[in-house]
Amino acid sequence: MFGSVRKCVNSCFVNTYIVLRNAKLHTRPDFTKNNFNVTRGYYNTLEENHIQFFYQLLGEQRVIVNVSDLERYNVDWFRHLRGNSSIVLRPKTTEEVSHILSFCNQNRLAVCPQGGNTSMVGASVPIFDEIVINTDLMNEIISLDDTSGVLVCQAGCILENLNNYVNKKDLMIPLDLGAKGSCHIGGNVSTNAGGLRLLRYGNLHGNVLGLEVVKADGEILDCLNTLKKDNTGYHLKHLFIGSEGTLGFVTKVAIQCPPKPKSINLAFLGLQTYEKVLKAYKLAKHSLGEILSAVEVMDTPTMQLVNEHLHLPSPIGDYPFYLIIETSGSNEKHDLEKLNTFLDLSLVKHFVLNGTVTSEPSKCQAIWNIRERIPEAFHKDGYVFLYDVTLPLQNYYTLVKEIREYMGNKAHRVFGFGHLGDGNLHLQITVKKYSPEIKSFIEPYIFEKVIEMNGSISAEHGIGFLKAKYLHLAKSNAAINLMQDLKDVLDPKGILNPYKVLPRE
Amino acid sequence: MARVLVGVKRVIDYAVKIRVKPDKKGVVTDGVKHSMNPFDEIAVEEAVRMKEKKLVSEIIAVSCGPVQSQEVIRTALAMGVDKGIHVEVSGPEYETLQPIHVSKILAKIAQNEKVDLVIVGKQAIDDDSNQTAQMTAAVLDWPQATFASKIEKGDKELTVTREVDGGLETIKCKIPAVISADLRLNEPRYATLPNIMKAKKKPITKVTPKDLGVDISPRIEILSVEDPPVRQAGVILPDVDALVTKLKEGGHVP
Q1: Same domain, A82 and A164
Q2: Where is the FAD-binding PCMH-type domain (chain A) (predicted)?
Q3: Which of A225, A334, A428, B220 has the CA that lies 20 to 30 A from B94?
Q4: Residue A123: how many CB atoms within 10 A of its CB?
Q5: Would A437 be classed as within a structural domain?
Q6: Domain that holds residue A286
Q7: Checking phi first, is residue A225 left (phi over 0); if not, alpha (psi -120 to 50) or beta?
Q8: Which chain A residues are closer than 8 Å to B181 by Cβ?
Q9: What is the ipTM of this complex?
């Protein structure tokens, strides 16, 4: 069968981050509370009678108290943060979540809502001893209407599984990111995740039609609308999209799925300068217009990182910049014609030096791997400071050059890649060894630079724990005060995901 | 310098999920993405590298199949092959086309084109036959170096390292010869834009098996094509005694 080649090549196609989570269990990050200037909030501590309540509610199988089992819930994906939670709860239903939150609210116990634990900013791990409420077992698909394209499912469904499910009806989830093999849709919604195809399908505020949310006091808020148009009162769901679990616990999601494209083409291009990258991008937008579905950029140090640590070579040789341009459409012949016109023109105008183009699924996967697996290489390069910023396109790469110069030989590697189409840059600084001095050398300098360039200090990763102290750089006092007011209304005791998003006093 | 013939087959792309047709006579191919058999890509790459080292003067790619097989020949041309020959076989005749037929076709073309080396992938990922190279060598009465993971070409002979069950075997054989490419022979290149452009101007000649005097009447009849049986769920047993009981009950142990 097809087994022979697939087995040989499949080892490269690892889409989940779970492989890496187990790779370095011997390097324990120290407790977050020891490494950061943060004080535990005014919450009660877990007592025996609390544990008994949870056992009664969920059964012993769905309450985790064993220290070594707790590891993967307490430590974040990058292994930079370690919480001190002594209990993880795994509810299956909205009612169970409601009972849990009602109990925790009454007993002033802090909780940390958790999905796939793939947050890049420490939003998904406890900071102290917050009770982790994990959605692993809330993974039922409730309904799919293949005419309207509306999918309704529980918050704990893994993104990739949802996509595979709707693919069977020729639909697709309008969201795609590298963590798809591990992340939960509830987490995606709570963080307003962006990803590779935001350029084409828009963000979750547009695609999520409805939510079911459990409030801090346990009340179930049913806003699970499945209609495209419903202007009936305040659109409450938007409060929960992007508030990172601090205003409510998302338990069900209704999401609009577009049709799966019949024809996908991928071009991998090599360019001389960033100016040429922008010219090629502008040409792509105009020539490919409605079929353009992704535009990603990578610089040379990023490609070198991938060559060195993941042994994935560049398909076209070495160039200063690389562009990945994807088209998705309903007619292969038409799309290929448009794409070839664009490629011919960009070669003739000397925007592009070289490139390859394909519509073969296996080659598309191989090329996407080069971009999607970049984070897997971080660990192997040293300690990585990562930044996810939006910048006006003119300044997109200027920041990388400036930071590279600023760091000098303090850094092992400064590299940038990202969703060029959205102006979203992922900038990383690797150092051989972490030190608080290096950290304070970089932050807040880099954030101040981003604000200076009229950018956003967090494009899609959110604020979480790590960027809460910089929120005042991004939003006015009036805005932050209103956020705090909303938080006080929805979660007066502050039990939902404390220490995250809003700055600590 | 030697002349090389490379056999390339159009198969369903290995990243695509295969579906059995409702009539159980085959797999769904309509509207499904196809590409060059990965082992044939490796064969093409090896030929192109030999040409770059000036060991080979001309490379001809041959594909047997429906009109869409020309796409696969175009890919080979974009990788550096000089010209292509499309042997048109379509419809029910294509369903029953077997290595026994293809080997005769390749052998005839090899003779017509006066080639010194025939390189093909070790097997196609749709039928896993692993017969074409061997049969072609037999028809031509040429030596065969199969499962090649390293090829050194001399003037009159080849030194080939083969991947075999016991490890690696190195053999020498005279040229002309037939080689089948194994996975570790090389890493095929991507066709780059300038070469894709150049390839559009390279010639592809069309012939039929009849033109070559090869009879492709079916030698097999496909009775049915089915999905592999669904894997039964396992059972977790509490202890060894329960395991032994289960084994005895199932008649696996006396």
Answers
A1: no
A2: 81-260
A3: A334
A4: 30
A5: yes
A6: 261-375
A7: beta
A8: none
A9: 0.88
